[in-house]
Specification:
Elements lengths: L1 H31 L7 H26 L7 H4 L6 H28 L2 H24 L7 H20 L12 H30 L8 H20 L11 H4 L9 H11 L56 H6 L8 H32 L6 H27 L5 H24 L4 H28 L7 H30 L1 H13 L1
Length: 516
């Protein structure tokens, strides 16, 4: 037994070092990539700014996805929650998020995003702490499903305020040509929240010192602490810092796209061109995309050859030039309701079903069907696979779009979606054949990679195709709503299928949405 524990500890430590190593590598890449020749002091201050936001966002993940730990045997021995009960608990959170996300997105467009982000983070922390205290004194013993559903819904509502405003806290610190690398690094940091939720959660559950309800108390206190750090250290704009003047020209040109800058240059030269389509004011996160990735894929297809980045002189882009008044009047909320955006939202609905259907139930699936305990190396491998897939999925899809399909998103997306369907079929076959759990985890990891990659690029596509920057956070909320509406359906329906027919029915239930 001691040897087994030692091997598991070595494996867990090794996986954690890989995840942390990837994050540190990304931090160094962001610090030393310097196309505008910023001072080292400016780059260091900029990195501290976004790193505080990213760690806070990672804490939000930990304080949200700790709900998955309700499916473990350790927790179910403490409170009476069945698979169907767990499905309704997740649905309460997902549907609350779907309803309030557009509203909080609108709030994020109108009010100070830093204050809104802090309010959402503090409220989520307090909700987690309150739930932990109630579980400590077994207040939910009589009606655990109702109370857990209410708290999960409140938590999702609070977090939507933070996730829909986080993007604006970094948008003024990076010029367009710097955002491609930054987006991938930023996403890698926040996506590590998946791994730390599952690994730290299991450490708590199997601890000889901490009781199981600390899976809510610890994330709650972490969220409150990070909100204080954000209040003290985070600044929306790089004012008063040497080198900040190099980013000033981009305050009204946040899209990381050289083509947009070229359009603006042409306008000032008197050429008659359509105004650019400004989109997202920042960097898409996991919930807004739920993940920003390789933003060079944001170039619109079919608009002609892309403008070389080195042909743009960003420090002289005349951002202050506004489009004619009649063109400004054409921008409205109806710009969000184009056929293209509605089709993409429908695609996100289907992918959201698969994504959260997997993320919400894979722990229970491995635990029940393959006896994979939370203190086993197979569990660490699966949780690390989920985290790495969410880190790299969108980046990989973006690279394939750029270098294989010459910056055309649809072929890359089709490749990922077909691969996603094939992986679901593969899991069905492996599960029916009772294959070795390692093979199943490998296929599951690839499935996560394809699903998160498709989700990220689909969401970025919608945001880039918007018609007005002022509605960026509202658009992010609407996009998030389409995904979480599907996630809510997958919650209680999967709970019913699993309780009634077993996990084979769960996999079959994922297949129609994967095909669509």
């Amino acid at each position: 037994i001691d040897r087994k524990v030692a091997r598991m500890s070595i494996f867990t430590t090794s996986v954690s070092m890989v995840v942390v190593g990837l994050i540190l590598g990304g931090l160094l890449l962001d610090l030393f990539q310097n196309p505008l020749k910023h001072s080292y002091k400016f780059r260091l201050r900029r990195q501290m700014n976004w790193l505080c936001v990213a760690v806070s966002y990672c804490a939000l993940y930990i304080g949200r996805y700790n709900i998955v730990l309700l499916t473990t045997k350790v927790v179910r021995t403490q409170i009476n929650v069945s698979d169907q009960d767990y499905g309704w608990i997740t649905t309460a959170g997902f549907w609350t998020y779907a309803v309030v996300a557009p509203l909080t997105g609108k709030i994020g467009d109108r009010f100070n995003p830093k204050i809104m982000f802090i309010i959402g983070t503090v409220c989520s922390g307090v909700i987690n702490i309150a739930l932990g205290v109630l579980l400590r004194y077994r207040v939910t013993a009589g009606h655990p499903v109702i109370m857990l559903s209410i708290f999960n819904a409140l938590n999702f509502a609070a977090q939507s305020l933070s996730t829909n405003t986080a993007s604006k806290l970094n948008s003024q610190w990076y010029s367009p040509e710097e955002k491609a690398v930054f987006s991938g690094v930023y996403n890698a940091v926040i996506s590590s929240g998946y791994y730390f939720t599952l690994s730290i959660g299991q450490i708590i559950l199997y601890s000889q010192v901490l009781d199981w309800y600390y899976i809510y108390l610890i994330p709650g206190f972490l969220l409150v602490f990070m909100s204080i750090i954000t209040l003290v250290l985070v600044s929306e704009r790089p004012t008063g810092i040497p080198g900040a003047e190099k980013t000033r020209d981009y305050e009204l040109c946040p899209l990381p796209n050289a083509t947009e800058a070229a359009h603006m240059d042409a306008q000032t030269e008197g050429h008659h061109q359509q105004p650019p389509s400004p989109a997202y004011t920042g960097d898409l996160t996991h919930d807004e995309a739920d993940n920003t990735q390789h933003t060079e894929t944001e170039q619109d297809e079919g608009t002609g050859p892309s403008t070389p980045t080195n042909a743009i002189q960003p420090a002289h882009v005349p951002i202050s030039v506004a489009p004619p008044a009649q063109e400004q009047k054409k921008s409205s909320y109806r710009d969000l309701l184009t056929v293209s955006n509605l089709l993409l939202a429908a695609s996100l609905f289907c992918v959201g079903w698969v994504r959260d259907g997997l993320a919400s139930w894979f722990v229970s699936f491995l635990n029940v069907e393959y006896d994979v305990a939370g203190d086993s190396y197979q569990y660490d491998l699966a949780s690390a696979g989920l985290s790495l897939a969410s880190m790299l999925g969108g980046l990989l899809c973006g690279l394939i779009s750029d270098f294989v399909f010459h910056r055309h998103r649809p072929p890359a997306l089709l490749t990922f979606l077909l691969g996603m369907t094939a992986c679901v079929v593969g899991m069905l076959i492996l599960h029916a054949a009772r294959a070795t759990v390692i093979f199943l985890i490998v296929v599951l990891t690839v499935l996560f990679l394809l699903t998160y990659g498709a989700t990220s690029v689909l969401a970025i596509t919608v945001l880039v195709d918007l018609g007005r920057t002022d509605y960026a956070a509202l658009a992010a909320g609407i996009i998030t709503a389409s995904q979480y509406l599907a996630s809510g359906f997958s919650g209680f329906l999967n709970g019913y299928l699993i309780s009634t027919y077993g996990f084979s029915a769960w996999l079959i239930g994922l297949l129609p949405m994967a095909i669509l």
